[in-house]
Amino acid sequence: MKISSNFSSSEIRKRIQSNWQEYLSKYGNLFTSDSISGSSPPSVFVGSYGYPKVGVGPMLPPIHGDTTLLDNPEQWLGKSLEEIVNFRLNLVRGVQKLTVENTQGRFIENLHEVAMSSRSIDSDLQFHKTTFPVTTIDGESPPFGPIGDIKSAKFSGGRAEKSIERVYYDHDLKAQDAVLTLYNSGIEISKIQKCFSVGMFGKKRKLVPTKWSITATDDIISKSLVSEVLEFDLIDSCRVFSHDHLGNMFSVILFPHRWIFEMLEAWHDGNNIGFGFDSEDARGIDHPPAIAGAYFAAKLGVAEYLAEKKIQAAVLVLREIRPEYAVPVGVWQIREAIRAAMKKEPYIAESFDDGTSFASKRMSVGKSEWLSRGRLLKMLKQKSISEFF
Amino acid sequence: MIKLEFSAKTNTSNEWKAIISAISTLVEEATFEATVEGVSFRGMDPSHVALIDISWPNSAFEKYSCDSDIKFGVRIDEFSKIIKRAEKSESVEINISEDSMLRVSIGKNKKYKMRLIESSVSDTPLPKITYDSKIALSSTGLDKILGDIEVVSDYLSIKTTSKNVEFSGKGDSGEAIINLEKDTEELEEISVTQESTGTYSLEYLNPIVKAMGGAAGSIICEFSSAKPLRIEFKVTNIGRIHFYLAPRVES
């Protein structure tokens, strides 16, 4: 196996960290205060620590103006890892501890207005204690700015997205249907997910920790797209799509077969390579995927393509995580990378075998190694009853 | 006065229970078709690996009338909940009139109304296969064999000769073989025109055999090498319940 990289992960983190510290030497005072005034992109966050009593609140940078970009992954394709890390470090998170059933009251209703606003919202937060800027970056979890316990919060009026407002006031609409309605009316997934997390959908509303709400949103939408795809004719060729993003190499292989989805991941761990995978057939997946939210984010990107082209295929997604991906930044990077891959001209392969060879040629893991790590070949041994009609 | 389009009554609830539990192993929504001749269902599971074909002739009903061909779709879990309210000995009568509601009358005095769902339009064909091997055994016998194999394997292989049938499975932990000889109590019938071997997924076989275990007395399995398996469940008062399962093939 060839493992080569210009920089190790820790070198990359060190570089990002020292640039950030240099920035703080000039602007650190903005993050060292018992209050913050700025424009929320808009952004809200629900923690998972202490569930069902969780930290909930808005996120905002100490800057006024149009800050939309700071929490809008749909606009981040093409940005560097350092830019994205900086976006996150700039956001100060105010929190109040609330139990998840608590979706009423002034504070939470203000957050609902923040979440459904189509533009940045001026906000003023007072904290119980002074916050301090975050100065270190680890490679384990997505970076965050400072966190402060909210004493009081004030928000200026937002401009509510009309379609979100409609499902928000509809208490008879199931959360799942709310998500689909908004997706179909063109609302960005990152926005739907924020509204989902602060308990704005469904009959019995609840706060949902941000990381779960991201997975749930991708799961609901991709499941619905796949149910459409199951009605379409099979693709007529084997197509390979690729895209590299923030030190992740992605390849998507589509081939003529009833819906099967398998995603394989490989990551560099010193001189070793670690593997993970999960898969489903047309009956769907009945357990939390071994590779967590990455699975649904990739499935969504591929299902969007198939639904738009009105074709059905079996899908193998390969993801090689290279050391250059030194700071994890969230599953949006997978969703957007797969969407970008599916917009490119595919390589038309002669067969599944040829397609997998083509896809793995540029990666550190060879075709047979990839395939031996998953379940796809085993699944393909199962014939379909329609082959005998 | 509501004009009845379709009405069918059975003396017991067993038939509906058997049919619903069979279908529920494959799909969540089912479209039935009723004609002058009787009620039928045909559908595949979402991954198109298994197919169920049910034909229930009008003669098997206590009372049957169908003015014109009608397709009706139900959510199986909702239908099942209602039918489960019937005791074994209670009659079940279903009616469909113009308002797209299914009326279910159970026994003397229980009356339910259930909303129908959009019925699927696709017509599923049946696999065209010449079966080289045919065996008959009791449904409980087959259920036990699947249990024996499941200990070591996810798949069941069936191998026939003119004198015996061998059920086997292989897994990481080892192998299992169950041999049934011709003219023994366990094997009610065997007829083989060509020795056959087929491998089938227990993930699909187990649920259907369990679901039908109570209702079906005996079972007829037919298959050919590397071709689908067809299981016929013999249920009193139902014309035909066929379960088709596509094979697993090493390639």
Biggest sheet of chain A, in brief? 6 strands, mixed
- Chain pair sharing the greatest interface: A-B, 17 and 24 residues
Query: Which CATH class of the largest domain in chain B?
Result: Alpha Beta
Please give the radius of gyration of chain B in angstroms. Answer: 20 Å
| Intertermini distance of chain A | 45 Å
Mean pLDDT of chain B: 94
Q: Roughly what fraction of the amino acids of chain B lie in strands?
A: 35-45%
Which oligomeric state applies? heterodimer
Question: How would you sum up the global shape of chain A?
Answer: globular
Under the CATH scheme, which architecture of the largest domain in chain B would be assigned? Roll
Write down the CATH class of the largest domain in chain A: Alpha Beta
Structural class of chain A: alpha+beta
Largest sheet of chain B: 9 strands, antiparallel
Give the overall form of chain B.
elongated
Instruction: Return residue spans of chain B where pLDDT drops below 50 for at least 5 consecutive residues.
Output: none
Order of helices and strands of chain A: HEEEHEHEEHHHHEEEEHEHEHHH
- The number of helical segments of chain A is 12
Strand content of chain A: 15-25%
Secondary-structure element string of chain B: EHEEEEEHEEEEHEEEEEHEEE
DSSP strand tally of chain B? 18
> How much helical structure, as a percent, in the residues of chain B?
10-25%
Domain Archaeal Nre N-terminal (chain A): 30-270
GO biological process, one term (chain A): DNA repair
Protein name (chain A): DNA repair protein
Function (chain A): Involved in DNA damage repair.
